[in-house]
Design goal:
four-stranded antiparallel β-sheet; 10 helices; Rossmann fold; about 270 residues; six-stranded mixed β-sheet; 12 strands; 2 domains; alpha/beta
Length: about 270
Amino acid sequence: MKPVLEVSNLSFRYQKKLVLKDISFCVDPGEFVSVIGPNGCGKTTLIKTILNSIQPETGMIRIMGQELKTLSSNALARYVAVVMQTINPAAMTVKDYVQLGRLPFFKKYQFFETQGDVEIAEKYMQLTGVANLGESRINEISGGQLQLASIARALTQEPSLLVLDEPTSHLDITHQVRILELINTLKKELSLTVLMVLHDLNLAAEYSDRLVLLSKQEGRIFKTGKPEAVLTEASIQAVYDTRVKVRPNPVSQKPWVLLVNEQAMENKKIYKDK
């Protein structure tokens, strides 16, 4: 079985600064893979190279076995759909916004959606819970509703790979869980393959099949694997330069990263010394 996404020996630099170096990993069909790492380690840059928005210095990216550089923008959009961290809402209805996901499938001289396009958009609006917002203006709904509408639009492309860049940023815990539960459910029901950038280590651990941990030093992969193999106290200390405790989540048994209050640790040490 071929990987949906294959990244091989990818390097990228902004002017003289090396941001990514020798990045290699793959995402298999039906997998949920999250890219994690500290600010400035190149997570969004990696996503931009996969979307062909910027060109790497060296390396190769394959989508469904085809080299990225050989794909037209329309062909790439039929394979890969994206939900970016920042969404600039336009003054259109949610229904029209979601139907934009069908544009890569328009034939030459086609200017309007077919009935089939409309039905596909309605299907994913129902699945993401925004069908009741169809006539609402996209720039007048809440941040959480906007993210759900953006996911609906991405799914309307019926992609092989769904790429999300920090889809839960700036959202409260209710919407964070709702969006990740939705993506996890869609992954199972639609056999969807997901690549996501996340800052929250506990959310990444809870929902991902595998993690790719990037290090800020030279933009390399520090470790990749299942959450329990990647999110260790030693790895987090090395990459984030932060002391934490990692324990199993009492319900799911996935790694649970606990922040350490330095003063509390010092007081505990003093108490033990006595």
